[in-house]
Amino acid sequence: MSESTNTVSDVTAVILAGGMSRRLGRNKALEPFQGEPLIHRVIGKLARVASNIIVVANDVERVAELDLSPDVIPVIDEYPGKGSLGGIYTGLNAAPTEWAVFCACDMPFPSPRLYRALLSNRETNDAVVPVVDGRPEPIHAAYSRACLEPIREKLAADRLKISGFFDDVRVCYFTEDKVREIDPDLLSFFNINTQKDLEKANRIALTSTEE
Predict the structure, then answer these.
(1) From CA 18, how far away is CA 15, in angstroms rounded?
(2) Cβ(22)–Cβ(89) under 8 Å?
């Protein structure tokens, strides 16, 4: 099956690129990884899932630094300084589709196959969220526009924990057993915060059989 036939035409992929990279000390999105900037790798992975790609960044200067291709839609964070929850709201609000899947620009191993499995649970739900070690993984997840108002209310109240709005929507929790059937090593949720993380990710990439 070709990559193009694997994409879901009525879904947008949103990549969050608004982090300050304080621990790494430089812009993680632009960090060279396996021959390309890290964010370009993530975009390539998500392009195998969704027909529309949005990148949420802090400001126009950051957008210019990312050197995005013309088919990627840059969006400026509507809630700067309010963390990933503000980025999720911004990306979902800008999406031209009812549903969007999410990833951070510092997650080098997002799984297209896992996203497709999450999306297969959209019916009768407003969000589909993987669970690992008993906790939701809200960045590698899928949300519908029904989540917008509950998220906006949490942002207005400065309650910025991503899962804080889950009680206000219909959430399908995708169990760890199901996740491991697709991603046995849980690489989808690996993120880069430090130089050691980056070195580990490069070692993993050399031996990984990820999709």
Answers:
(1) 9
(2) no
pLDDT range class, residue 4, cuts 50, 70, 90: very low
If you compute the radius of gyration of the chain from its CA atoms, what whole number of angstroms results? 16
Asked if 118 and 130 count as a contact pair (C-beta separation under 8 A), the reply is yes
Q: What burial letters (b/e) apply to 135-158, b meaning 16+ CB within 10 Å?
A: ebbbbbbbbbebbbebbbebbeee
SS3 172: strand
Continuous H helices in the chain: 3-6, 38-46, 60-66, 83-94, 112-119, 148-156, 176-182, 195-207
Q: Are 14 and 81 in contact (CB under 8 A)?
A: no
pTM (two decimals): 0.91
Torsion from C-alpha of 73, 145, 98, 65, nearest 10 degrees: 10
Residue 15 in tokens: 């990549």
pLDDT in tens, 59-107: 888 888 888 999 999 999 999 989 999 999 999 999 999 999 999 999 9
Residue type, 182: I
What rounded mean pLDDT belongs to the chain? Answer: 91
Q: Which candidate, 52, 77, 82, places its Cα nearest to that of 62?
A: 77
Q: Using N-to-C axis directions, what is the helix angle for 112-119 and 38-46, rounded to 10°?
A: 40
Supply the pLDDT for residue 93. 98
Q: How far apart are CA 92 and CA 105, in angstroms?
A: 16
